[in-house]
Amino acid sequence: MGSLTEATLKALAGARSFERGRGYLDAVSGVEVGDDWVTATVHGTERYAVELTLGGSAGPNGECDCPYGLEGNFCKHLVALGLTVLAQRESLPRQRKAARDRAEDLDAWLSGLSKDQLLVLVREQITEDRQLRRRLELRAASAGGDLAGVRARIRELLDIGPFAQYGYVEYADARAYADQAGQAVSAIGALTGSGRAADAITLTREAVRLLAEAVESVDDSGGWLGQVGADLADAHLQACRAARPDPEELARWLVGHVLGDFDDLTDIDPLDYEDMLGEPGMTVLQRLAVEAWRGNRTGWAEKYLMERLAKAGGDIDAVIAVHAADLADNGHTHLVIAHELDSAGRPDEALRWAERGVAEARDSSTVDSALVDYLCERYARADRLPDAVDLRRDQFRARRTLPAYQQLRAAARAADCWPAEREGALALLRTDAGRRERGWYGGPLLVDALLDDKDVDAAWQAATENGAHDRQWLTLADLARAVRPADALGVYLRLAEPLTKQTGNAVYQQLVSLLLSIRDCHRSLGTPDEFAEHVTTLRTAQKRKRNLLRLMEEHGL
């Protein structure tokens, strides 16, 4: 309970939902308290079932079946329950003890019933509770050895029909469908537990196929069917451990599953079955994986399976062969191979692969920047600084951006050759800045580079000759105001003019900031009267904008 506070509830729900939750305190009813949970009904647009989890390392959390809660949000109904719990904090231990006492009383009462009385009770419940009836029907079919009956009921549980409108299960119904599908997993687990693991294997594989087909018609944004798929994968693994199926048949099924259409749902790892496959099964698994990969060297599933097996076997050369069979044009795959070789303690080969990635790239402007960074780092460690400069220079020429300029500067300074490199880079940017054909406009990049070099005079000249963005002009004016107040004043006045025709507090903030800079320029120029006249004229023209005038007064304008 210590982690449940109003501040915690507000952080979980957000200020808006928290405030709205305060208005639902009278709508909370039927509060039930467990060891680390509280449930209740909250009456909103409809009656919503709400559960607040109090314990756990992650702190308080909860679930609500309102539309907003079903999207995974901590809704106003959960806030209302949380505030109710806080208000009843002192009585919670007593309520929790009462709940335990009721559970013990119920257990004692059930234990005292005769067989006939229990049967009457269960029959009453299965008449009223359809889900309970289905679960018990599955248990009965399983216990009676009725495999066909279990299969039929599992098919019913995985059928989207009862939840689908127009053949599709909407998000609001997806969780209920997933809960029903989860009963199929429980039934399969019960088969394994009752000594019928071989049947469980068969039914799990059928269930995986049926669920994969159903997923196509379900809005599973909440990921509930993904959890059902993971549970099915675990049920299959447990059944195989219990039944010990034929290793070669198991290997064939695993390869077919990974390469098929259903693995995205279950994400079965063949290596989890290594102890069941043994040497005969692993041999078949590896042979089939190699055959599949050779037949489709660019297939994602084929590459994944080969890489997984090669890594598990410590065969780094096989891992490299898998990647080398499908090299990306931008050198990214070469970088992956380099990292694998580094991990294997083969740095010289890693470096050669990385260099190949740059050399073999079809378009130098698209070379993976991470590959260039990797090579430059390796060159720096090997004291090959000129090679790093060459690489950064090629990168800048191919992809002229401010980050590329900054990286070239860093490499050239480390190699003590920045003045010459800078001259060449700026010459290239000046050429770009002078181009106007086909919409090319390189002036702003030249200005950014010069500003980044803190060469304000050159940046001002470049902006004057080749153009610049308003953001750059503002930066230039701020940097040059102390030494070129007249030039800076012209910039500020030009930037302020369009703001006087706009409204909104954010605009007023910008305008006042510019006015303060204009005032500084007039002070430096010795023309404060001119600024006073400017402000008077502005106040007269903007007299309807009360927020602007108030802001100006706050800043002494």
The SS-based structural class is mainly alpha
Q: Which stretches are poorly predicted, pLDDT < 50 over at least 5 residues?
A: none
- Rg, alpha carbons: 35 Å
Largest sheet: 4 strands, antiparallel
How many DSSP helices? 29
Q: Kindly report how far apart the N and C termini lie.
A: 54 Å
Proportion of β residues? under 5%
Question: Helical content, roughly?
Answer: 55-70%
Q: How many DSSP E strands?
A: 4
Q: Average pLDDT, to the nearest integer? A: 88
What best-fitting shape do the alpha-carbon axes yield?
A: flat
* Lateral strand order in the biggest sheet: 1-2-3-4
Characterize the structure shown.
It is a single chain. By secondary structure, the chain is mainly α. It is built from 29 helices and four strands. Strands 1-2-3-4 form a four-stranded antiparallel sheet. It is flat. The model has no long low-confidence stretch (mean pLDDT 88).
Which descriptors apply to this entry?
single chain, about 550 residues, mainly alpha, four-stranded antiparallel sheet, 29 helices, about 5% strand, flat
Layout of SSEs?
Blueprint: H1 6-13, H2 15-22, E1 28-33, E2 37-43, E3 47-53, E4 61-64, H3 67-70, H4 76-87, H5 92-112, H6 115-128, H7 130-143, H8 147-157, H9 171-193, H10 197-215, H11 224-243, H12 247-259, H13 263-266, H14 274-295, H15 300-312, H16 316-324, H17 332-343, H18 347-359, H19 369-381, H20 385-398, H21 402-414, H22 418-433, H23 443-452, H24 456-466, H25 470-480, H26 485-499, H27 505-525, H28 528-541, H29 546-554
Antiparallel strand pairs: 1-2, 2-3, 3-4
